[in-house]
Structure formats: structure tokens, C-alpha cells
Design goal:
Strand 13 and strand 14 form a beta hairpin. It is built from no helices and 17 strands. It is 0% helix and 36% strand. A 5-stranded mixed β-sheet has the order 4-10-9-6-7, with no helix packed on it. A 4-stranded antiparallel β-sheet has the order 14-13-16-17, with no helix packed on it. The termini are far apart. By secondary structure, it is mostly beta strands. The chain is extended and about 70 Å long.
Length: 193
């Protein structure tokens, strides 16, 4: 059982209510299995994961060599993205190593997939009106960098998109008859526009 008390300046609180650990065969559900969230794409600069254990140390590792590909990171949310030192490379397999109490030692390995060819063209969600400062863009690859062009100049960017869509904010409001398009970039490749 776990019981908590606090002490401050020599004064101690009464003990809190106790919490019992789940015992094997008690009917308690096991925690969900930590996993890498696919797809992993060539050139991604982070590895998305789900069902990680809060408070444990995690690190992306090469499945082939066991060598680290990232810094150790403390998990603060079960769903997170772990930045890697270098972009992922097509064909590699990676896993996430976890170190901490009751944490499984590593996730199943996930293979890094090739980028689609050509990269999909991001879609600006209509309507976009004069005076707008926010533009929603869909059809984004996970991990891509996104650039919003206005009359041939970059006006807004997102370092990495993860959900398939992004909302970009302009420093100044749009005006009538401006031409907008979006470009997504992964390594040296970019979508056609």
C-alpha cells in the first residue's frame, strides 16, 4: 500500500488514505502496451508514441544495433513525440526503450517507410477571407515542415505537423485578391504547387 504524509517546518500532516497495488489475478486491467504510432516516414525528425508510462525515461533506439538515436526524455504524457538526433532513414527499424518502475523495456520495432512520390499537395481549407490571420491546411504528412506562401513569398511556417492538418497564423491580415498556396517539405523534397 502507498500512504502519503507531508511535513513543513517540523509540522506533519495526518496520513492520507492508502492506495493498494493491483495484484495478479485481482481482475485489474493491465496498462495498455506502449507503441510507436505509425507511419514512420523517411526524413521524420521525431518518433510519435502512445501509451508510454508517465515518469519513465524513454529513448529512441535502432532495432538493428540497439544504439540510441535520441536523448533520454522523461515522459510527461502517455502520447508524445521523441525528437531524434538525425532524420529517420527509409528501411531502418526503430524502437523506444523505456527505463523505470514497471515499464516494459522496449516497444515493438517499427520500420521507416519511404516518402510518397510525389509528396501530396497540401490543401488550404476554404473559405479564406480578407482580414483572416489564420489559415487551416489539410493533407499534410506527419513530421513534414509546412510553408504558406502569399503572392510568392513565405508568410507562415510550421516546423512539424503531426495530425494531418495544421493551422498557420500570419503576422498581418490577408487582403483582397492575394494568392495563397501551401508547400510541405521533408528533407530536400517538397510538394508540387
Amino acid at each position: 500500500a502507498i500512504v502519503a504524509r507531508q511535513t513543513l517546518c517540523g509540522l506533519t500532516s495526518p496520513s492520507g488514505s492508502s492506495l493498494e497495488f493491483a495484484r495478479p489475478g485481482s481482475g485489474a486491467l493491465p496498462p495498455p502496451t506502449p507503441a510507436i504510432v505509425p507511419p514512420l516516414l523517411d526524413c521524420m525528425r521525431a518518433v510519435p508514441a502512445a501509451n508510454l508510462f508517465n515518469g519513465v525515461l524513454t529513448q529512441v533506439v535502432s532495432d538493428a544495433t540497439g544504439q540510441p538515436l535520441s536523448d533520454m526524455v522523461v515522459v510527461t504524457s502517455p502520447a508524445t513525440r521523441i525528437p531524434v538526433w538525425f532524420p529517420l532513414i527509409e528501411g531502418d527499424k526503430v524502437a523506444i526503450r523505456q527505463i523505470g518502475c514497471s515499464a516494459p523495456s522496449r516497444t515493438a520495432a517499427e520500420k521507416v517507410q519511404p516518402l510518397p512520390s510525389p509528396l501530396p499537395v497540401p490543401k488550404i481549407v476554404q473559405p479564406v477571407r480578407p482580414g483572416d490571420r489564420l489559415v487551416k491546411i489539410q493533407n499534410c504528412l506527419p513530421g513534414s515542415r509546412l510553408h504558406l506562401m502569399v503572392d510568392g513569398s513565405e508568410r507562415a511556417s510550421s516546423d512539424q505537423t503531426w495530425s494531418g492538418e495544421a493551422v498557420l497564423q500570419f503576422p498581418a491580415a490577408l487582403t483582397e485578391n492575394q494568392k495563397l498556396w501551401a508547400v510541405q517539405v521533408m528533407c530536400s523534397r517538397s510538394s508540387n504547387f
